[in-house]
Amino acid sequence: MSPRRRRRKDAEAASTTARGPAAPEQQISAADGAVAAGGNADHNAVGPGSRVHDLRGAHIHIGTPEVAWPVEIGTVPGLASAFQPRSALRAQIDAAQARDGAAPPAQILSGGGGTGKTQLAASYAAEAIGAGTDLVVWAGAAEIQQVITVYAQAAARIRAPGATGEDTERDARALLSWLATTDRRWLVVLDDITDPAAMSGWWPAGRTGTGGVLATTRLHDARITGNGRRRVRVGVYTPDEATAYLRTRLTEDDAGHLLDDAVGDLATALGHLPLALGHAAAYMLNQDLPCARYLALFDDRTRPLGQLLPEDADAEGYGREIATTLLLSLDAAQRTEPVGLARPALRLAAFLDPAGHPRALWTAPAVLTYLTEHRSAAPDGVHRPGPVTAEQGEAALRVLHRYALVSGDPVSVRIHALTARAAREPLDEAALPALTRAAADALLDIWPDPDHTDPELAASLRANTGRLHQLTGEHLWRPEGHKVLYRAGWSWSTTGLVATTAAHWEQLARTSRAILGPAHRSTLRACAELAALWRVTGRAAEAITLTEQVAADCERLLGPAHRDTLMFRADLVTFYADAGREPEALPVAEDILAIRERTLGPAHAETLTARSAVAFAHSKVGHVEEALTRFHDLLADQTRILGPEHPATLRTRANVAASYADTGRTAEAIAETERLLADRERFLGPDAPDTQLSRSALASAYSQVGRAEEAVAQTERLLAGRERLKGPTHLDTLRTRSELAICYAYAGRLTEAIALEESVVADCERLLGPTHLDTLRTRFNLAASYGDAGRFAEAVALAASVLADRERLLGPDHPDTLESRALLWALTAGQRLGD
After folding, report:
1. What is the DSSP string of 449-487?
2. Is 607 helix (H, G, I), strand (E, B) or coil?
3. pLDDT tens track for 289-315
4. Which of 112, 337, 656, 722 could bridge across to 733 with cysteines, CB 3.0–4.6 Å?
């Protein structure tokens, strides 16, 4: 064999991976070397007796020490005390397979700060070490040079071919080559990747199926999951895991006495965040604080996170205070295009509901204006010119998501409660007015009217309004109560949740009275809404008491002739009449009219309105002829002063028609309603609200005199208009469908009536909820129709459920409750007769 051939063979022996003993060291004598070199023993002697052996033609093989498997490179973090196995999450990781059935090249544990990504990866690394995996590499990946250095160390330890120790990057690539082809078992963990671009080309990829890669990152970046790498989202603990952590942590430290009934509430308050739970448990142990006492401290928003979850409570050696950990990515996000928007965007999100706010908020004009005004300068100190666009608003949101500062889906955006708190705490009071106004205006910008057609959006908007109010306090009340507070109240009123709606208006009235005073318009609006709610939910006495109090406050502070004073006294006229206190309604109405005539004159529009209220009060006390006379006189004056086409004039004509009916002049009532409908169609248009009221009134009048098919025709036309203008799910449309079903029943078309009522009940339950007052009304009507059809078992069951709901929501003596009780009695009697 030639020397060249021998050298190649020996080199191959030296580079063999150490799965068995290294090749024996080859001994070459001086004589052998001389012969091999083609020289002689005496050649090149330099002194007496000297002998120089020329070994230039020989290859001396130095044996490679055997690698001591298994090998562990890098420091795997120890598992936290009371570490939770997170079985469901681990099942996701264990089950993650590529479509072809092979393991993915890498699995990426992705989530926000403090969610336990590193701990989860450490548990896998510890298991691999315990199972005798040949090579486990743990590399911090915040900087690519860290990864390269650890790779090079691993290459040297396992004697990877091509690793010389002279070039770190070359050695690192030698490791990647070895990993790609070895049949040894291996695991590489890349912890906390922050630069996906830098990682390009440095992802281990095994082709033999014996290795795996596990990486952790805060980033939601598509470059991390390229080339088949699979993302596994790591969120917070489940409620059970969070509670189990606290119980185990405290019990293992002989502090079981700190556990009490508040442990679950404490876990919820901490957002089930592993890092926060660890800090809180350590703080409780240090201070000997039971769960309930610590929770009370935590709920005190005046205490900063640094005090409640201090750095010295970092028992697991995380190395940073919690606020820093949660916002660690914010500086990087702030430098990402669109530059300078991440911080103001996060601050806005921090004042909204952690459970989610509508994504549409980020293109609302108010938010874009706020971002424009609070955009930070770029790193080069240059401010970006021009207003922030809707596209940039969306881009800022994507940046926050990319850096795991928020999460969400195409519909809503979520922020962890502790991240939000950490973002709020550095703000001083001077920053809050502009932020509060922007968030409130934006919520109002995207609030649909009506909102009951999208109950999930409506619920989110109400929740976010409540959260904003809770966090900003008086800033939503300067210089007056923000409209979004009232919009939320009107939205609550469509849900049928009477107690919740009342609580909302009570809070607004109380807060406005405390901040702005009892006679401020914001206070009066809230009180008026609360009184109106009480009136329609059977709390007439409370409605009257509140309105009397507000009217008295207005009179004392603003004077008896002030517009607000008279407005509330006018409400009293209606409330008294509805409550059966008609004799009290009439003098109030007459006093208002006297003040209007004295201060405004007899021809003023508000004076004319006051005259209508007096006529109405007369009708309520039974003075039907007096009421008709007053309406006739008013109609003549309005026609002369306002004109025959004025809406107020036309409304008085409607009252004249109603008065005809009250006096038994039914034919005249119907004739006047027919003329009024024609005039309203001509003057106001066929789809005007007042025109629709006249059509509804005419249909009702037709039904009362037995002209059932004409009533059906008018109601069908009314329904077609409302469906066209307001859509099939608008509250007015639902009510008209219910009216049509009643008309069908009057016309003897009972099968059509029941089919329509069943569909209305289903839509009302879906859109308004099962206990909305309109839903209860349609269920009541359906029960009656079942009874008319002889379906007594269904009728009784439905009527009983309506009665139970009305008793619970409205009280046992509300007129609707009494109506339900009477229906149930009649149906039960009918059922007995049928049996």
Report:
1. SS-TTSHHHHHHHHHHHHHHHHHHGGGGGSSS--HHHHH
2. helix
3. 999 999 999 988 888 888 888 776 665
4. 722
